[in-house]
Amino acid sequence: MTPEEKLKIEERIVTMLKTVYDPEIPVDIYNLGLIYGIDLADDGNLKIDMTLTAPNCPAADFLVDDARIKLESIEGIKNVDIRIVFEPEWTKDMMTEEAKLDLGFL
After folding, report:
1. Beta strands in 1-106 (DSSP E)
2. Which of 23, 38, 47, 104 has the fewest Cβ atoms within 10 Å of its own Cβ atom?
3. Bridge partners, residue 47, by sequence
4. 31-81 pLDDT, tens digit each
């Protein structure tokens, strides 16, 4: 894929991640700062490193499945591998200003 095509797909990836919400928190996983890495290979294979707000998050399977299904719907993506990582440990400081405002932290 060309650099322009890759950039457009990466923009769609971010847009799609912003539609995945933790059922207990009214903010999407991207603005919560749960996405640590997005790696789109030229062959269309996508690797996402994400974390959870807590290691024992009851919504973990839901979040990963919802993200995977939505990301797989993007034209140009052939495979989605979402890896749950816990380093670095997630903190409220990783949220965007918008998320902090929505949750009343500002």
Report:
1. 35-40, 45-50, 79-84
2. 104
3. 39, 81
4. 999 999 999 999 999 999 999 988 888 889 999 999 999 999 999 999 999
Alpha carbon distances (Å) from 92 to 32, 81, 103? 8, 25, 10
Cα distance between residue 49 and residue 40, in whole Å: 12
Helix, strand or coil, per DSSP, at residue 50:
strand
Q: Is the pLDDT of residue 106 over 80?
A: no
For the stretch 67-94, what's the b/e string if a residue is b when 16 or more beta carbons lie within 10 angstroms of its beta carbon?
bbebbeebeebeebebebeeeeebeeeb
Query: Residue 20: exposed, middle, or buried by beta-carbon count in 10 A (0-12, 13-18, 19+)?
Result: buried
Q: Determine what percent of the chain falls in helix, strand and coil, rounding each to the nearest 5.
A: 35, 20, 45
Only one residue has tokens 């919802």, namely: 66
Q: Minimal CA–CA distance to 39: which of 96, 73, 81?
A: 81
